[in-house]
Amino acid sequence: MQFSVVAHRVDAHQSIAHCKQAAVTLDTDMAGNPEAFNPAELLLAALSACIIKSIERVTPILKFGMRGVEVKVQGVRQDAPPKMESVRYEITVDTDESDQRLKLLHENVKKYGTVFNTIAPATDLSGVLVRKAPLNENAL
């Protein structure tokens, strides 16, 4: 498989990346642009998308039932040389599956994610996959 993205500078505040029929506004402003993802945030978003896509890929194979997924990712940047020093993630799955099946899902995410496996050797990447806490019916 091959992938292609084309980005161009709009002005001193932003750039735009195009892929297929999609476009993403990029924060390329030296002062920052709160209406766009900066490069580090794009990396974390790519990891999030990779994790969710991996889950979408393996759940039918594993016959894993779920209602939803949320991924939170945090990165710590090192200044010299500039790089992501560490990346931590938390995958929250809304499911009734067993703890053993949750562990199996997490192992598949770590094993088959393209972006995950690109980032893992380059930084301190770690995280957890947890079950979404059930809603407390008495809280309403």
Summarize the structure.
This protein has helices spanning 39-62, 99-112, 114-119, and strands spanning 6-9, 14-19, 22-27, 68-78, 83-94, 124-131.
What keyword list fits this structure?
6 strands, three-stranded antiparallel sheet, about 140 residues, alpha+beta, three-stranded mixed sheet
- Report mean pLDDT, rounded to a whole number: 94
Class based on secondary structure composition and strand pairing: alpha+beta
Name the helicity range. Answer: 25-40%
Overall 3D geometry? globular
**Gyration radius, to the nearest Å?**
18 Å
Task: Provide the succession of SSEs.
Answer: EEEHEEHHE
Strand content: 25-35%
Gap from first CA to last CA: 49 Å
Largest sheet: 3 strands, antiparallel
Q: How many strand segments?
A: 6
Spans with pLDDT under 50 lasting ≥5 residues?
none
Number of helices: 3
- For the biggest β-sheet, the strand order reads 1-2-3
Explain how this protein is built:
This protein is of the alpha+beta class and 140 residues long. The protein has a three-stranded antiparallel β-sheet, with no helix packed on it. The chain has a three-stranded mixed β-sheet with strand order 4-5-6. Helix content is 31%, strand content 34%. It starts with 5 loop residues before the first strand and ends in a 9-residue tail after the last strand. The chain is globular.
